[in-house]
Write a structure and sequence with these properties.
The complex is a heterodimer. By secondary structure, chain A is mainly alpha-helical. Helices cover 79% and strands 0% of the residues of chain A. Chain A starts with a helix and ends with a helix. Chain B is built from 13 helices and 19 strands. Classes of the chains: A mainly alpha, B alpha+beta.
Amino acid sequence: MAYFLLRRTIGFLLTLFTVSVIVFGVMNILPGDPALTILGLEASDDSLAALREKLGLNEPLLERYFSWILNALIGDFGKSHSFGVPVAGLISERLSMTVSLAISGMVLTILLALCLGIGAAANHKKIGDWGVMFFSQLGIAIPAFWLSILLVILFSVKLRWLPPGGFPGWDNPLMAIKSLILPTVALALVQSAVLARVTRSSALEVMRLDYIRTAKASGFSNSRVLWRHVLPNALIPIVTIVGMQFAAVVTGTIVIENVFYLPGLGRLIFQSIANRDLPTVQALVMMFAVIVVTANFIVDLLYLVIDPRLKERN
Amino acid sequence: MKFSIIKSSLFATVFTTLGLLIIPHSLSAKSNIVIGLQQEPTNLDPTADATASIDGMLTHNVYESLTTVSEAGDVLPELADSWTISDDSLTYTFNLASGVKYHDGNIFDSADVIFAFNRAMAEDSVNPTKSIFKVIESVSASNSTTVKIKLKKKDAFFLFNLAKGDASIVAEETASNNNTNPIGTGPFKFASWKRGDRLILVKNPDHRGAAEVALEKVEFRFIADAAAASAAMLAEELDAFPGFPAPEMLPQFQADPRFRVNIGSTEGEVILAMNNAKAPFNDIRVRRAISHAIDRSEIIDGAMYGNATPIGSFYPPHGGAYVDLTGVYPHDTAKAKKMFEDAGVAGMEMTLRLPPFPYAMRSGEIIQAQLAEAGINAKIEQVEWGFWISEVYKKKSYDMTIIAHTSPNDMGNFARGPKYFYGYDDPNFSDLWGRIKTESDPGKRKLMLQEGQRILTDQAVHGFLFQLPLLGIFKNEVKGYWSSAPVLFHPLKGVSVN
C-alpha cells in the first residue's frame, strides 16, 4: 500500500512537471503577442514596448519559466496580463460556478447511467432495453452544444420555465439552482449515454455468471440480485469510465459555459487563450491537470475498495 | 426491480425538480435596461486597453472627454464648455465646465486635464491610440477652468480625436484603479462588475445633465455565442442587443411584434486586403483583376444576408464626402480571367488568412469560389485573433486577408507607407492625406477626400467589399438608441424604456 502511494505520488509530480513545461512552451511558441492583443490595431510601437516591459515579457524565457514555477509553488500565480489583477483571484471568483456545474453534471450522469444501464440489462432484449440503447445512441451522436440550444429553445424561449443562461451566484440559491439545471442536463445527457451503455454491458456480463444464477435460484428477489449482487461486481469498468468522464465533464464545461454564458473557468480559459494571457492560461491548465490527475488517483483507490483482491496483489 | 419502477421513480424526480421552478419572471422597473454585448472586456480603462466594448459601455457614460461626437459625427462640447482656436490653428483654448465632480466626490478642474494628457503622452504610456497625442506640443492651464493645448502641426481631426475613449479625462487619485473600478465624471456611475457575467451602471444624480437622463440602472450582460444571444433576446432576458452578431437570425426578430430590428451603419469598411508589397499583388493588373473577379452583391447576400451597403473605395457611404465608385470594376469573371492570364498568374495559388469574425469567414469562402471561377486558387487559412494581429497585421506575413477597419477617418491608413500591413506606398496619396489632415476648410477637405477615394479605387489597392452594418435588436419599449455607430462609444444619456 505504501509502495502504491509512493509510486502514484511520483507519477503525479512527474505529470504536473511535464504539463507545466508543455503549457509554458506552447503558450510561448504560439504566434501572438499579449501586448498587441491588449492594445489593438492602432497601438504605437512605443506603447507596445512600454506594455511589454510592464508585463515582464522582455525577460529570458528560462528565467520566466523558473520564476513562474517557483512562485506557483508558494501559491502565487502572478498577475493576469489582460485583466491586470492576480490570477488566483480570477480563478477563485469563478471556481464555485464551475465546480457546482461539474459536480451536478457528474452526479446526474452517474444517476441516469446507473438506472438506465441496470434497467436495460434487467430487461435484456425487451422494449426497455431497446429504448435505452436507442436513446443512448442518440445521446452519443448529439453534440452537447446543439442539445443545449434545443433545451434553451424549449424550456427558456417557449415554456419560460428556466433562464436561457447566466449565473447569479450562490447569494441567491434558488436562482442559482434554476440557472444550473439546463447546463447540468445538457452536460449529463451526453455523458450518461456513454456510461449507460457501459453499465448495461458490464451488468449483462456479470448476470451470465454462475453465482447470479445461484442467487436467483436461492429465491432472492430480482431487485436484490440486481443491486446487491450484479451492480457491485459490474462496477470496475463503470468506475474506470466515470474517472475518464470526469475529465470530459470538466473540459465539457468549456463548451457548456459558452452556450449558457456562465461566468466559469471554462470561459475564462477560452478568453485567456484568445487574449494570450499567459499567466492565466498557465494557472488554469495546471489546475485542470491537477483535477484530472487527482480524479484518476481516486479511481485507482476506488478499485481497491470495490475489489479487495487487488489489495493483495499490490 | 422492474424497469417500469425505475422509470416512474425517474419521472417523479424530474417532476419534483421542475415543480420547484415554475415561478414567473419578475418584471423589471421601467427605468432599468438590460443590454446584451457580444464582446466581453477584461479591463475597464479605455486609456489602457483597445477592447471596443470598454468604449461601448463606459466612454461618455462613465468617463467624459473634453469633447464628444454626435450621431451625425459632429464634434460637441462636453467637459469643455467651449473653445477657441488660434488663427494659425495651432493653439486650442478650452473653457472647462465648472462645478463638475468625479463619482468619488473629487472636484474636476484643469489639473485633471493636464494629468490625463501627460499620462497618455508619457514615455511609458500604454495608451492604445497614442498617435492622437503625438501632435501635441504642450498642455498648460492658466487657471482652474482654462486649458491651453499647443500643437506641433495642424490637425483637422484633433477635436474629433479628443472625444475618443483614449482621451478620457481621469483623475490622478483614481487613474491606476480604473481597470477594475472606473471613476469618471459622466452621467452614469460604475456600480459593479462580475467578470464574465455582467456590468452594472447607475445614474449619477449629481451630473450636470442628470435631468435629461431617463435610465436609473443599466445592466450589460456578456453573451458571446450568437445562438445564446438570440435565445436570451427571445426569452426577454435582455431589452436590447445593439450589436447583434448573427444577421441570419434577424428575420425571426423582424417577424416578432415584440421587437424592433435596426440596420444601421458603422465606420467599418470591410476590405479584401492584399499585400501590395508582395508579388503578385505589387502588380496593379493583378489587383484590378481581383477587383473584377469579386461580386459584392453575392458576398453581401451570402455573408450578411443582404444587410450591408457595398463600397467601391475606402470611405463610409453615410459620410459627407462619399463618392460611389462601386461601378469602376464591374463583376466580370471572363475579363478577370483574361487579366490574370495576361499578368501571368492564372492558376496561381494564393493564401487567404481569415480572422475569426463571421463576416470575414463567410465573405472569405464566397471570394474563394469567385476567384476559383476566374482561375485563381485561393487557399483559406482560418487563424485566431492573436495570430492575425501578430502575424498578418504586424509581421505582414500574408497574401490576402479580410478585415473591417472600424476607426473613423481612417483613410490615412493608406498613407502609412510600406511599414503598414497594406504594403502600399504611394507618395501621391501620402501627400494628399497630409493636406487633408491640415485643411481646416470643410469644403476643400471634402473635395480632397473624394480625390483620395478615387486614387484608392484607381490603384485597386484592395478589394473594397462593403460597409459593416450595425445590426441591433431592441424591445419595442426601448427608445433613443443611436441607429448608427459613427464612433466606438454609445451614449446612453438619451436612451429610455417606456
